[in-house]
Design brief:
This protein is an alpha/beta fold. The chain is about 25% helix and about 40% strand. Helix 2 links the parallel strand 8 and strand 9.
Length: about 180
């Protein structure tokens, strides 16, 4: 059993037992699957005993194990069909800058809805807070307070000022996180 870490058109890379396998999907499984293989999928593989030209072991994905979470995005043209993009992550870190460029709260709201719809825990991280004026910081604090009231974790960070970086590391430690 391993976890898909990369998906190409016909191949995928699966990490299992400290090794990274170059895999193809079993033909009958590919025909019957409702969705394509996703990064994050846990899969059962069969080692073929072969290696590719880069020395990676080769395997066949025999089965996709049930997904605990799934993040989807809407088709950009029709806006009605959902396309899965990642599976089995525990949380989504939504990073936005307060300035340069200015924060877009509506986009953050949509990302929160997508995360919660896929059973991921959203975390809103507002970066570049060192660039904020007093009024901008008040507005940002009010918005972050609203998210916290809804049970959403929030962080304020600044890399040059090293503000909030320890809290960010703590939030990411030992978690499978989607970055948005």
């Amino acid at each position: 059993v391993g976890q898909v870490i990369q998906v190409y058109s016909l191949f995928s890379e699966v990490e299992s037992g400290g090794r990274t396998y170059l895999c193809v999907v079993r033909k009958t499984m590919a025909k019957l699957a409702e969705t394509a293989l996703l990064v994050g999928d846990r899969v059962r593989i069969r080692d073929l005993g072969l290696h590719d030209e880069q020395g990676r072991p080769q395997a066949v994905v025999e089965r996709v194990l049930p997904r605990e979470t799934i993040l989807t995005r809407t088709d950009s043209f029709k806006g009605t069909e959902q396309h899965p993009i990642v599976a089995n992550a525990g949380q989504m870190l939504i990073v936005a800058s307060l300035r340069e460029p200015n924060v877009r709260w509506g986009l953050i709201d949509r990302m929160i809805v997508a995360a919660q719809g896929g059973k991921l825990r959203p975390i809103v991280c507002l970066n570049k807070i060192d660039l904020a004026t007093g009024h901008e910081l008040e507005e940002a604090d009010a918005a972050l307070g609203h998210y916290q009231h809804l049970g959403i974790s929030t962080l304020k960070t600044s890399v040059p000022q090293t503000i909030g970086l320890d809290a960010l590391r703590d939030a990411l430690r030992d978690q499978t996180t989607v970055l948005a």
